[in-house]
Structure formats: C-alpha cells, structure tokens
C-alpha cells in the first residue's frame, strides 16, 4: 500500500509499504478520506513529542471495514466508519463519565498509532474494544464524513455555551473550526452571528457559511465594531477559534453581561499566559470555558449533523488532493488558501 511517512520537520515522503496484517480483536480499514488538520500542519513544520518518525500521521478519518479479526463484535466487513481519535483507558474517573478526551492515559490514532494518510489503517484491539469506530449510515458520503472529527470538537466547545434563540455570537477566527461554529450557532437559533479574522483571504473563504457580519480586524477596530452592532451591549457568546492570546484578552472587552466565552484555540507552549481581568468576569457574571478535543457521543452527534445536512460539510471542503500531494495540501492549509483540504482515496 501507499502511505505518507512523516520523517521529521518539513519532511514527508509517500512510500510503498506492506498492508497491515491484523490479529485477533483488530480491524483493518480501507481509508476513504483523511482531512488535513491544523495540528497536521504543526507536526509537519515542527514535529510533535508524541510522533516518532518515521510515522504515518492524519487523524480526521473516514473509512470502510475490509477485514475483521477473530473475536470482534459489533463491526462487519463493509461498514462505513468514522475513526474516533482518542483511545482512552476505559477505567479512570473521566472515562467512566464518558469523557474519554480527559483521560490521563489517552493515546491517539495518528500520533501513538499510525494514522490516516495511508491506503489502509489497522485499528488496534484497544481501540476496537473501546469503541473507537463509529459506524455510519450505509449511504453516508465518506468525503463529508472526514469532517466528523473536527465537527465533534466544535460540538464539544458549544456544549458549554448554551446558545439561546436570538443571541449574538462572535466567532474570532474564520478557519474551518470557526466556520463550523457559525453553522452550529445557526442550528442553535442564534440571532446575529459575527465572524472576525485578521486575514481578508480567510474571511472571503468563510463567506460560504453566510454569517451576518464579516469583520477584518486587521483593518477595523473589532471592539468598536462589535459594540456598534450590538447597541453597546457586547456579544452574548464569544468563541475564540484562533491561537491568539490577544484575541482571548480582547474577548473580555466585548462580552455582554452573563455572556459566555470559549477559549477554543490553544496557545503556543512558549507563550501560554494572558492578561485576565477577573473583575470583568466577576461584575458581569461571565463564564469562561476551555475545551479540548471531544468524546465519543459528540462524534455521533457530529455525524448526524453532517448526514442530515444540518451542517454543510461539503461546502467547507475547498480542496481535495490525492495522497501523493499531501504536502501540497498541508501547504494550502498553512497558507490559509484552503478552508478544509482533504486527502481522498475515493
């Protein structure tokens, strides 16, 4: 089979390697599509402590089961599936509550285990036993299904925010996650949705999700614009879908009383600290939430949203590339020229 191997920062090579052989309790997948995540870009640029070269990365995976090992129950050849990235321990306090993304012993497909930038992928027994394959409807579009994983993360982010009918939502960051947040907020009944970015090119790509207002914060004062569009009240919900400490700090200046802020984008490890005015949180009764990845039930919710067309997954995919051009796809994402790029084997 062909597989793209990460060899170190800035190095990736498509190689011909043997197709994985499965043992008892394991499942073999034929990968249909693997979307390119911002994390894939960072791994390609800088490496990752959990990724040991040479390694097959990629974790936003849709596939079809082509072989089932002895003792496997609940899966059969021909099933279309979405791969749940986190393989948790299944025993800890968080796993018992269904919060696999918070498991202290978690391992990941595409990091600790080979990922989806390959024609075939073996799911280890630990992943099969923990239910890391979500069976999809037989007529689900597998290109669209590659967006189940990132959408599940956005679903997790909004699970804390309780967006109500008519509320104003500000999304900072117009990448694929920001666009997913716009579409989810619409589904929740938001009355006014504002999306902001410092890149005009990214904002143009994001116009396909039809937010109410698009603000280039490199050209206009975002705080002034938001306050003007909310009659001085501020936004009820602010989602910082960008890796920007400055944007996180500014969110506190634009939030309405009893508003909710999601710090969705993590910050660089060498600069993780922001200036935080706790009096704003105190006197305005503001809720501030973090979010990391997602858990199994949110994959299921994301798959239902895509299958029912409540989320226009295909509209978010701007570029489809073959495996041989995976580096080209990574560059498109890095440069902001792609909203969502997908490596397709279809």
Architecture overview:
It is a single chain. The protein has 346 residues and is α/β, with parallel strands linked by helices. It has helices at 38-46, 93-96, 125-129, 142-145, 148-158, 176-188, 200-206, 222-229, 245-254, 278-284, 296-307, 313-316, 326-334; strands spanning 2-8, 11-16, 27-35, 60-68, 80-83, 86-87, 107-108, 120-123, 133-135, 168-172, 192-197, 213-216, 235-240, 255-263, 287-290, 317-321, 340-344. Strands 3, 4, 5, 8, 9, 16 and 17 form a seven-stranded mixed β-sheet that branches. Strand 11 (192-197), helix 7 and strand 12 (213-216) form a beta-alpha-beta unit. Helix 5 (148-158) packs across helix 11 (296-307). It is globular, with a radius of gyration of 20 Å. The mean pLDDT is 97.
Distinctive features:
346 residues, alpha/beta, 26% strand, six-stranded parallel beta sheet, Rossmann fold, globular, Quinone Oxidoreductase, Chain A, domain 1, seven-stranded mixed beta sheet
Residue share in helix: 25-40%
Q: Give the SSE order as H and E letters.
A: EEEHEEEHEEHEHHEHEHEHEHEHEHHEHE
CATH-level-4 superfamily name of the largest domain: Medium-chain alcohol dehydrogenases, catalytic domain
Radius of gyration: 20 Å
Number of separate strands: 17
State the CATH topology of the largest domain.
Answer: Quinone Oxidoreductase, Chain A, domain 1
Tally of separate domains: 2
CATH class of the largest domain: Alpha Beta
Distance between the termini: 15 Å
Rounded mean pLDDT is: 97
Strand content: 25-35%
Q: Tell me about the largest β-sheet.
A: 7 strands, mixed
Large-scale geometry: globular
Low-pLDDT segments, ≥5 res = none
Output the number of helix runs.
13
